[in-house]
């Protein structure tokens, strides 16, 4: 399974893994019922296909509704930065809601690059700026304690993805074994391994 597939599956089935984003923005912790999955397809009737990894609608009973576009990013890619601007503009126009772009990165250099800002400017005039919220090695804690895995399994899974290239990878993966926590990433809301 690639990082993009693992990230997509995690956020699609357990959007509560986005808790670090909500905490950093000063928003109450999200719960799964607050989300509705949207099509990640951002293709128009042109021959160029563009597809975000994961697109979710955040719809709490009270508070601001918005769209989240989540992208796994494994390296610096100027074309991806241009695509991100397109995703944000397209989703904003399609749903008439604010859009939060989240980039999930496994290494610090890519995470630093992904923070942007990516500007569309002519001379001194900036028309559009894209600044993704980055979940990377410096912003997601290394979850290595079994008690924390049991308490916050979605964060543990995110930690395993984000820190998969770090020095403590083995400890993170060992602590986040699904059978230890009773959480199965393939079956939301069920316990036990498969």
Description of the structure:
The protein has 194 residues and is an alpha/beta fold. The protein is 36% helix and 20% strand. The protein has 8 helices and 7 strands. It has helices at residues 3-13, 19-24, 78-95, 108-114, 146-151, 153-162, 169-175, 178-181, and strands spanning 35-38, 54-58, 66-73, 99-105, 118-122, 125-130, 133-135. The strands form 2 sheets. A 5-stranded mixed sheet has the order 1-2-3-4-7. Strands 5-6 form a two-stranded antiparallel sheet. Helix 1 packs antiparallel against helix 6. It starts with a helix and ends in a 13-residue tail after the last helix.
* Share of helical residues: 25-40%
**Proportion of residues in extended strands:** 15-25%
Low-confidence stretches: 189-194
Helical element count? 8
Category by helix and strand content: alpha/beta
Oligomer category: single chain
Main sheet overview: 5 strands, mixed
Number of strands: 7
Radius of gyration: 17 Å
Overall pLDDT score? 82
The helix-strand sequence is HHEEEHEHEEEHHHH
Head-to-tail CA distance between termini: 16 Å
Choose one word for the global shape.
globular
Which strand order do you get reading across the main beta sheet?
1-2-3-4-7
Topology diagram in text:
Layout: H1 3-13, H2 19-24, E1 35-38, E2 54-58, E3 66-73, H3 78-95, E4 99-105, H4 108-114, E5 118-122, E6 125-130, E7 133-135, H5 146-151, H6 153-162, H7 169-175, H8 178-181
Parallel strand pairs: 3-4, 4-7
Antiparallel strand pairs: 1-2, 2-3, 5-6
Helix pairs in contact: 1-6
């Amino acid at each position: 399974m690639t990082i993009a597939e693992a990230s997509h599956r995690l956020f699609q089935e357990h959007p509560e893994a986005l808790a670090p984003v909500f905490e950093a923005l000063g928003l109450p912790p999200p719960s799964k019922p607050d989300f509705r999955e949207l099509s990640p397809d951002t293709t128009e009737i042109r021959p160029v296909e563009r597809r975000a990894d994961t697109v979710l609608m955040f719809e709490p009973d009270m508070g601001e509704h918005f769209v989240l576009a989540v992208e796994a990013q494994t390296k610096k890619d100027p074309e991806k930065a241009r695509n991100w601007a397109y995703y944000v503009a397209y989703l904003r126009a399609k749903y008439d809601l604010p859009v939060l772009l989240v980039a999930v990165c496994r290494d610090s250099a890519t995470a630093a690059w992904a923070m942007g800002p990516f500007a569309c400017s002519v001379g001194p005039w900036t028309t559009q700026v894209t600044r993704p919220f980055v979940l990377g090695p410096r912003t997601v804690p290394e979850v290595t304690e079994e008690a924390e895995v049991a308490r916050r399994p979605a964060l543990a899974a995110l930690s395993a993805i984000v820190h998969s290239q770090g020095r403590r990878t083995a400890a993170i993966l060992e602590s986040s074994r699904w059978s230890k926590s009773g959480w199965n990433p393939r079956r939301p809301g069920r316990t036990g391994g498969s």
